[in-house]
Specification:
By secondary structure, the chain is of the alpha/beta class. It has five helices and four strands, in the order βαβααβαβα. It has a four-stranded parallel beta sheet, with helices on both faces. The longest helix is centred in the last third of the chain and has 25 residues, at 131-155. It is globular, with a radius of gyration of 14 Å.
């Protein structure tokens, strides 16, 4: 089974959205028994909280369910997951630094590495933005999730 961990800062906007989108794709493609999906944040400020209500609403309007409880990424996640997918450059560097022995660098990617149609360097954090910012982040996440699933399907 391939294990994917999506990571953003607080684990209440982008990474739970990516988790929800990917779970939906995995289910639609009949791969529930082949791919496990989770998410985490680099900080523990929101630990135990549900995703941001604005992201829940935006995702729900597209048919995604976000019911994850925020948690902080751990060193054991680096070992336990096959893909650690980060949302922006800052998160990417934070996760790389967590890998103090440099054993898992090959598992760490940026979500935008898997974009298939859209162009972006990062999935922007919509937390301080408008509804349109949440929609744009979801657009990027949906595109990249499709690319990531295709990438994994080619490996299995």
């Amino acid at each position: 089974m391939k294990k994917i961990l999506f990571v953003c800062m607080g684990n209440i906007c982008r990474s739970p959205a990516a988790e929800g989108v990917m779970k939906s794709l995995v289910n639609k493609n009949g791969m529930k028994d082949k791919i496990y999906v989770d998410s985490a944040g680099t900080i523990d400020y929101h630990a135990g909280e549900f995703p941001d209500p604005r992201m829940i609403e935006a995702a729900s309007e597209r048919g995604y369910e976000l019911n994850h409880r925020a948690r902080q990424i751990t060193k054991s996640d680096l070992e336990n997951f096959d893909y650690i997918i980060t949302m922006d450059d800052q998160i990417y560097r934070s996760v790389q630094r967590l890998d103090t022995q440099k054993k898992y660098q090959h598992k760490i990617f940026k979500m935008t590495d898997f974009l298939t149609e859209m162009k972006a360097d990062e999935i922007p954090d919509p937390y301080y933005g408008s509804k349109e910012d949440f929609e744009y982040s979801l657009d990027l996440i949906e595109d990249a999730a499709k690319g990531l699933l295709k990438h994994i399907q080619n490996e299995i």
